[in-house]
Amino acid sequence: MIYAFKGFIPVIHESAFIHPQAAVTGNVIIGKNVYVGPGAAIRGDWGGIVIEDGCNVQENCTIHMFPGVTVLLKENAHIGHGAIIHGASIGKNCLIGMNSVIMDDVELGDECIVGALTMIKANEKFPARSLIVGNPGKVIKEVSDEMISWKTTGTALYQALPGEMRESWEAVEPLREIPANRPSQESLYKTWNELKK
């Protein structure tokens, strides 16, 4: 659902896919090939939200801010399931792990990776290529070229997803039994642990 608020109507590029069970409100700008999953709340009521080209905001994420603040997700940022971004700036090609919390005035440099369940306190600043984990979030090492390559490949799947959703996604009635000719799904991507084996 897309909602105007106090005269602000979200601006969404036609190549983006916003799931109808997501809520996008007010002063929000969404770029090219962005995927926003069901349950995501992108609420630009008290401030702005800019989601640049190639980003994804997965299922049940929340993006919001204190009054007068603009949240920025730079190009190719990847926001994992259930993450909360509140008043922060996320650098280009960053990965925010599932159920992480990124608080107010946090600045992540380009190509940072934030581990799942990490909590980054307000006003923290991290240089590019920081691998951040824990509660509170701490840098444990520099992100390697191999890690960024893995992250970029995963993000590319999400960048293709808006077009695939427009081509083949539809509401249907469920089947009541498994058909004999049910196809198998191809494996498009390996987890980091699988890749390292």
UniProtKB/TrEMBL annotation:
Pfam families on file: Hexapep
InterPro entries: Hexapep (IPR001451), Transf_Hexapept/Carb_Anhydrase (IPR050484), Trimer_LpxA-like_sf (IPR011004)
PANTHER family linked: DYNACTIN SUBUNIT P25 (PTHR13061), GAMMA CARBONIC ANHYDRASE-LIKE 1, MITOCHONDRIAL-RELATED (PTHR13061:SF29)
Record protein name field: Phenylacetic acid degradation protein/carnitine operon protein CaiE
Organism, scientific name: Pseudobacter ginsenosidimutans
